[in-house]
Amino acid sequence: MREDMLTIGAFAKACRLSPKALRLYDELDLLKPGRVDPDTGYRYYAVAQLEQARLVAWLRRLGMPLARIRQVCALRPADAAREIRAYWARVETETAVRRDLAEFLVEELSAASVSVSRKDTTMLELRYCAHSDRGLVRPANQDTAYAGSRLLAVADGFGPTGHPASSAAIDALRVLDTPEAPTGNVLNLLDDAVRGATDAVRDAVDGDEEDAGTTLTALLWTGSRLALVHIGDSRAYVLRGGGLFRITDDHTVVQSMIDEGRLTPEEAATHPQRMLLLKALTPTATPDLRLQDAEPGDRYLLCSDGLSRVVPDGQIRDLLTSAPTPDTAVHALTAAANEAGGPDNISCVVADVVDRTTT
Fold first, then answer.
1. Across all residues in the chain, what is the average pLDDT?
2. Nearest to residue 288, comparing CAs of 150, 93, 106, 148?
3. Pairing assessment for the beta strands 151-158 and 143-147 based on DSSP bridges
4. pLDDT digit string (tens) for 200-229?
């Protein structure tokens, strides 16, 4: 045997892949042996193959699927690095969603064994206001904004039937806006309502699904927490302790490029595809669902991108902080967007979490 060749056993030990894995990767054309004995079928590997084998081993430890590993291994190092970064960004996003679900299940199952009086779960309530404005450029307003004692929602319609789409989505969710706190699993209730909203939007666009639709961002109040559903590029924020925190992720092409490290936030602001959605409210798209703990003094903002795209987060924070009521806040935010040119429809919902025992 040549000095630059290793048996499958020696090669497996050097690259930390089992002989069984090496045989599988040979069959999949992922890592072919340097030589196969024609009589015994025994595999030999070149020492020079160790670098690629170690890369395969590391990527498997990351959990990367074999088909994607094959693609990465075929790339130049710089391109492979970008592909790995993009893969890991998606893993972190998916892990965050699963973490939120796990935390919700732990809380729900833990609470099931504890008797909590109704008084303890209804100490907080919302004070709210919704407002929608055409802006200064668009010929019509395709946004819909809604605020009630249980439901806060913003939908940003697009295409020739954008307004019917956004209205249909909000109308379908309004069944949740009841005087009593939702009973049962609140995320399941919200998920079921969103399925109904999806069907309503499909009926509203009447065959124009490829050219028309809507985003949807909504919060359902349980009396102590908020259940969030989000899809598209409208946004939800919470003002807490003087800081403004975004609690949604934009489902846009430029946001995916930022997550993958291919674009900076500054570059995204002027990118030609900055308004291109990756997901909207359709039967094939899965919205984000999560629970948000509420605290007295929280101020929540839901808005369409007609606000967030032209008014910086710092200015949004200042306006939310200085406005004494939700009503003055939504009108101050709308005015700021119009002062910035009002290039799109502007919708805002602002809600304060207040302790009823102190008001």
1. 88
2. 93
3. antiparallel
4. 999 999 877 678 999 999 999 998 899 999
